[in-house]
Amino acid sequence: MAVDYTRPHWEKELPPFDLVLDPLGADSFARSYRMLRPGGRLVPFGAISEFDGGRRRAADPASDFRVLTGLSTAQQLVDSKTVIGLDLRVLWDDRDTLQPWLAPLLPMLRDGTIAPVVSEVLPFTEAAAAHDALVERRNIGKVVLVP
Q1: For 117, which of 6, 22, 126, 141 could close a Cys bridge (C-beta 3.0–4.6 Å)?
Q2: Could you name the domain of life of the organism this protein comes from (predicted)?
Q3: CA distance linking residue 48 with residue 51, whole number of Å
Q4: pLDDT in tens, 84-104
């Protein structure tokens, strides 16, 4: 389920989750961690909230990924929650492919268990407009470029 995080108090309407994929960064990571049920997993994979108009806002790029100040392994044990970072570039560099990580998803995509949320589909000639939509965070879901 994708949610519109720009609505006030959007998280209060939701039940606890087994999995939260968080591309926002900074303060969002702590909120996402709180939204997990015991046994849940938070996967931070970006820090788009640290960018404004295509420029990084944070003076210290490492600050984007200080996921949860004060979170310790002991706290994760007590909460029975997991935080695991994700950078597809690192996975690609490790094996020269993303196939081992994507293959388990294909049956679920085919049978409709999971479905991508697509905000808009644009031709390659509109790549600049697609980039602007992402930088300005006008999309809810993916912006897809096609030939």
Answers
A1: 141
A2: Bacteria
A3: 6
A4: 888 888 899 999 999 998 999
Q: Which pLDDT band holds residue 6 (cuts at 50, 70, 90)?
A: confident
Residue 135 — φ and ψ, nearest 5°?
-60, -40
Task: State how far the alpha carbon of 96 is from the alpha carbons of 27, 84, 90, 92, 93, in Å.
Answer: 33, 21, 10, 5, 5
Q: Are 77 and 118 within 8 A, CB to CB?
A: no
CB 67 within 8 A of CB 27: no
Q: Could you give the CA distance from residue 79 to residue 25 in angstroms, rounded to a whole number?
A: 21
Q: Considering the entire predicted model, what is its pTM? A: 0.69
Please, are residues 132 and 126 in contact by the beta-carbon 8 Å criterion?
no
142 strand-pairing partners: 118
The strands making up 17-22's β-sheet, listed across from edge to edge, are: 17-22, 36-44, 82-83
Domains by residue range for the chain, with CATH: 1-84 (3.40.50.720)
Residues contacting residue 58 through CB under 8 Å, at least 6 positions apart: 26, 50, 64
